[in-house]
Amino acid sequence: MSTSFQLESADSPQVGDVVVTTRDALLELQVGKRTARTWCFVPAGTRGELLKREDGFGKVYVREGPFARDTLWVATQTLARVGSVTSLRR
Q: Whole-prediction pTM value?
């Protein structure tokens, strides 16, 4: 599957931005609000919405792909801003 996207700037992503993981990573995954966090492999190009920033990590809500509707905790240096959140809403 080929994913094409255009990174907007080198600026650090802000809460509410659509972000993409820039490299393969082993990340913390939280499926539900009250469930325990687990670890999973996430490929580069995974897109989502940045919900929160905390201690060098970003909480990303994934809206598409194999992790759709899951929340990932990603190191902010692994994220790049793609665009506005409206590009993920259909």
A: 0.73
pLDDT tens across 42-70, in order? 999 999 999 999 998 999 999 888 888 88
CA distance 57 to 45: 17
Tokens of 13: 């992503």
Output the six-digit token pair for 27. Answer: 């990340």
Token pair, residue 88, equals 């993920």
Which of helix, strand or coil describes residue 86?
helix
Report the DSSP beta bridge partners of residue 28.
39, 73
Task: Please tell me the distance from the alpha carbon of residue 73 to that of residue 39, in angstroms, as a whole number.
Answer: 10
**Which of 90, 78, 89, 87 minimizes the C-alpha distance to 13?**
78
Q: One-letter amino acid identity for 40? A: C
- Residue 8 DSSP symbol: -
